[in-house]
Amino acid sequence: MTTIQNFAPELFDEIASQLSLRDQKSLRLVNKRVSSLTTPLLFSRVQIPNLRDPEWKVKSLEDLADSNNIGGSVAPWARTVKFDAQYRCDEWELKVLNLLPQALARFTGAQVFKLWVHPDNPLWIYDCLFSALGGLPYIHEVCFQLGCPHLPHSQHGLLPFHHLERLEGLRSVKLSTGDLKNREFAEKAILHPLRNFLTRSRISELSVVLGIHTSDVSLPSVQELLPTTISHVKNLELSGFVMNMPTDTPFLHSLTSLGIKDFSEGGNLWNNLRANRIQLEKVAVVCSGLHNDEEMMVYLSSSSGLREFHLSFQHYQRFPRPDHHRIRTVDLFYKHVLSQHRATLHTLNLIWPTSPLWCFRSVYGEALRACRNLEVLGLIVEQEDILNSESTTLNELFTIAAGMPKLKLLCLNDLNYGQRDFRNLERTIRVTRIQAPLHRRAFPLYLQLKMPTEWVFQLRELSGDIWTFRLVPLAPHTIGVEKFGVPGLA
Questions:
Q1: Which pLDDT belongs to residue 484?
Q2: Which CATH number fits domain 279-490: 3.30.2430, 3.40.1130, 3.80.10, 1.20.1730?
Q3: Structure pTM?
Q4: N or C: which end of the chain has fewer CB within 10 A?
Q5: Higher pLDDT, 92 or 199
């Protein structure tokens, strides 16, 4: 008979990822009292929390460092580790300095390591953490979230990325910071050490999100981060940079996924992509309403092979611009971008509605119908278009969605500057009748109303070819909706 130890660790990691935090805690209690054979399942994901009591922090590290304790015995089973590292200079500092490397060294099977580093940590914590990470043989992804520094900048050393060069299997680096408020510090302490590391690494996924939110701080250029020799990055996400780079940039030719979370004007990124004939498969961008948006649409109109397109408009109204320029961007999207990628596009997601220009209109219906391979479709609608009894917007939109043979999920983001009338929205959805093809019996279509996010509907057959959406007790995350941004960085 096959025992639980014979199953692959990856299987336990996959099962554990589907469990809620409450379920995992319950199973861990059962594990203590019933059998240690379930350890791989229960402890494939481990979180080391931020304990406020410094004495408890030391005890926690002692438990992890000793293989005879429960913490030390289960640590090797962990595949994903999230570590909340907050240690101040106090009477426990020497013990922490000795125990921390020993505790982290117990996670010999870890593949993903996520570190939250607080701003008031002493300088030694960075070298201690990065050095310990460099000794874990199976790490392929690291995530660093750095709090905004409160200490004078002169007290902050360089981030020791060079320790990560020992990780031969490392393929993904994700870094985000709090509000730096100082470009020179960002360049000296973060960008330059990271740039030096990138010249000698083989990572394929890079995310750097700088928290520079002060208007009088100039943004660094992306060419200050990415070395000219880098040529193997496939997935790139950036925020806090001016998107300016030389025309002949080698890494562009390996790029397949691009995410841009900031909303700065300037830079030649989209023109460079077009000049180098780069074919992106995934694009996730926060639109600003500025000229960059139009350049992006021009590039996408000339490329091919786009599979996922995510657009967020959360900062759209921050920068005033004549509407005719923004209308041209919308026209380029529906008339040219969708037409160009209608055969390959699997996910189209418009979120964070702030402008009526991007709301669904009947004139856009044909462009959407042509995208026959869409599996996830997220659109923006005006609440008045839904609640107005004379409007046919909802009926037309549902009919288009039902007619898409591969569509699994339709997400609606409603635009309303006042109070949202959720109950009437739900009622209007339930009483809307449409005609749908019979294949919907075998291939269900779900509708998610983004506000509130727990409202999910399923297309059901009433009689003959008459269908309607009915509320179902189904959590949105069970459908497989991907969050905005590069996978894993929402």
A1: 35
A2: 3.80.10
A3: 0.82
A4: N
A5: 199
